[in-house]
Amino acid sequence: MELIGHQEPWRHWHDAMSGERMHHAWMLAGKRGIGKMHFAVEAARALVSDGGVSMPEGNHPDILTLERLPKDDKEEKKRDEGKPFETKRNISVAQIRAMQKRLTTRPTLGSKRAIIIDPSDDLEKSASNALLKSLEEPPIGTFFLLVAHRPSRLLPTIRSRCRIMRFPDVPDSEMDALLSREAPEVDHNTRQAAIMAAAGSPGVALEFVERDLGRLYSVMRQIVAEGDDGFVLRGQLTDALGARPSRDKLLASIDLARSVLASGIRTASPVQYPAIVAAHAELVTLSSQAPTYNFDSGLLIAEIGSLLASAAGPRDRAHV
């Protein structure tokens, strides 16, 4: 199945496969939730089946996928039972070493092997350095597909060895059609809020609906519009997040706040513009730190609320 916005990436992939020499490392770059991992799996299957190799259903022995593992034995049990589970914050160097050990053997079914790393921007520093050695001297017939939500977090030496394939944002009209089809029970206002908050990412839009982020989004917009001198709205923001939010919901709240500010930048007055830009930059930094640090959920949402409030400050003072 070809996802929305994947037509051009598929054209590049098929052109590369039919060329004389296929590049050994690819970086699939684009927003989280745009379907890059889905593309990576299907592209890898097309690659290793080149030449008529039979394709087993389910996992393919010549496609290795490295992703964040369950954070402990309890979460591993949940994964094995098919339940939602929490993961570690990074892809470890041990996982890279185990993959490299596999590369000393021949592919199982054909002459090619594909390595998918998702997301590659969550590699430990030592894991990145270890991966670099494989990218510098790749075994014959081995190809790497690095899924990257934020390519700038990867080592420049890794980026320089990859051919970049960019996945475009999905237009609002196509997002609306997707949500109407996948979440028909959602009302028009919530659907439009999801589209605005997702900023071109179908996965984020669906996440918005599934995790019921509408109230969180509404309070965030109110803080930016009105400020929060009495800290009342920041209290509402904490309530909207919930007492024990999952790590994924915490990360989604940062992305949501960034979307709120990004949309505000487009309509900001000259007085408010610098404050919004500064707050957005701080959220970008926070979003890069959050996946690897153990933030207290209460402190994190308080920080998000304060940054949103700071974006409204200059405009409020201008009207005093």
From TrEMBL:
InterPro entries: DNA_Rep/Repair_Clamp_Loader, P-loop_NTPase. Residues 68-89 have a biased composition (Basic and acidic residues). Residues 51-89 are annotated as: Disordered. It comes from the Bacteria. One of its GO terms (biological process) is DNA-templated DNA replication. Coiled coil: none annotated. GO terms for cellular component: DNA polymerase III complex. This is DNA polymerase III subunit delta. It comes from Pontixanthobacter rizhaonensis.
